[in-house]
Write a structure and sequence with these properties.
Elements: H1 31-40, H2 59-62, H3 75-104, H4 107-112, E1 129-136, E2 141-144, E3 147-151, E4 154-159, E5 162-170, E6 173-181, E7 186-192, H5 207-212, E8 218-223, E9 229-232, E10 235-239, E11 244-246, E12 249-257, E13 262-270, E14 275-279, E15 284-292, E16 296-299, E17 302-306, E18 309-315, E19 317-325, E20 329-337, E21 343-348
Parallel strand pairs: 1-7, 8-14, 15-21
Antiparallel strand pairs: 1-4, 2-3, 2-5, 5-6, 8-11, 9-10, 9-12, 12-13, 15-18, 16-17, 16-19, 19-20
Length: about 350
């Protein structure tokens, strides 16, 4: 095939604007560039300078369609941004989990988890004590330091610390007790109201008194850690604190306490002109102890563990309980353990 004319791309005299071989407008050089090229041309003998100077002498490599765009983000930068986003999300998720975990902790754990530099507020020590008064049988009139305060059973929650004198009166029976009340502790006072001896007993002794005064008379004492009423044939003879004069013979005594819910029978043989000692085996009861936030516990001076403590088996009677916390101090309470009803003690050491 023969080309009818020759196309010289380097010829400056060809009218580039009207070239029919440049089909697209984008391929046509701008008018301003052509004008500048003609003005800058010093002589017709010199070839024209190219409009755009490629950075490389290899125009085929410069004009490749697969050449990467320098304005796009490189894969390395994109990967680094993605990794940074994942790390940020993980750190945020971990911190949110820690916040939720801290909020879910109970107050007791939060108080015990302070750091070395944290200042923990210690509650002010109590300035009053607690006093519980009971009598067997109940209904005895009570005076505290000479002032009438009520009838048993009686609970006083704000007693001034120090030695207190308590007098219980029921009918003709009267009992005096002295107790030391401590700040922040509970003291318990019990009294068995034994019937008072009749004034005419010495002048006109009964058959039992006459028998007791005979040569073959003896006496009975009871070895009991708590005070119990003593009955013989349905008649109250006194209490386990008393020494009971009895004629020689065999007896069955009923020991009763409404305070400790005790009712049991013991047998004794009274000898002539000598004393008989009767050992009283007390039943057991249960005691449960709890403290807020927690405490180490001693009962009657012996360690028993850390709260909460459930169903400790103890002899019936009054027991001293000491609760101790390393930062909130200690609290002392007296607790009555009964034979039937379970005893419970709860103390808030934060108050």
């Amino acid at each position: 095939m023969t080309v009818p004319f020759r196309v010289d791309p380097e010829s400056p005299k060809r009218p580039a604007q009207n070239d029919p071989f440049l089909e697209f407008e984008s391929e046509r050089p701008s008018r301003s560039l052509l004008g500048q090229q003609d003005a800058a041309k010093p002589s017709a003998d010199l070839p024209p300078r190219p409009l755009v100077a490629p950075a490389s002498t290899d125009r085929a490599a410069y004009d490749r369609p697969d050449r990467p765009d320098k304005s796009a983000i490189s894969p390395t930068v994109a990967f680094a941004i993605g990794v940074a986003g994942l790390v940020t999300a993980a750190v945020g998720y971990y911190q949110m989990g820690q916040v939720l975990s801290d909020r879910s902790q109970p107050l007791a754990a939060a108080q015990g988890a302070g750091t070395a530099g944290t200042i923990t507020a210690t509650p002010a020590p109590p300035v009053v004590g607690r006093l519980e008064i009971a009598s067997d049988p109940a209904g005895a009139s009570v005076t505290l330091n000479g002032a009438a305060i009520g009838v048993t059973p009686l609970v006083l929650a704000d007693v001034k610390p120090g030695r207190q004198e308590i007098v219980l009166t029921r009918g003709s029976a009267s009992v005096t007790r002295t107790v030391d009340v401590g700040a922040g502790s509970t003291s318990f006072v019990t009294a068995v109201m034994s019937p008072a001896a009749a004034p005419a007993a010495a002048a006109a002794p009964s058959r039992d008194a006459a028998t007791a005064g005979a040569a073959n008379a003896g006496w009975v004492t009871f070895d009991s850690p708590i005070d119990l009423r003593v009955f013989e044939r349905g008649r109250q003879r006194g209490s386990t604190r008393d020494r009971l004069a009895m004629a020689e013979g065999s007896y069955e005594f009923e020991l009763v306490s409404d305070i400790y819910e005790v009712r049991q029978t013991v047998s004794a043989r009274v000898g002539a002109a000598r004393g008989t000692r009767v050992a009283v085996a007390l039943p057991t009861g249960t005691l449960s102890i709890n403290a807020l936030p927690w405490a180490d516990v001693w009962v009657d001076g012996s360690p028993v563990g850390t709260t909460p403590l459930a169903n400790l088996t103890l002899k019936v009677g009054t027991h001293q309980v000491l609760l101790r916390h390393p930062t909130l101090g200690e609290r002392q309470q007296n607790v009555v353990v009964k034979a039937v009803t379970p005893a419970r003690l709860g103390v808030n050491l934060s108050r």
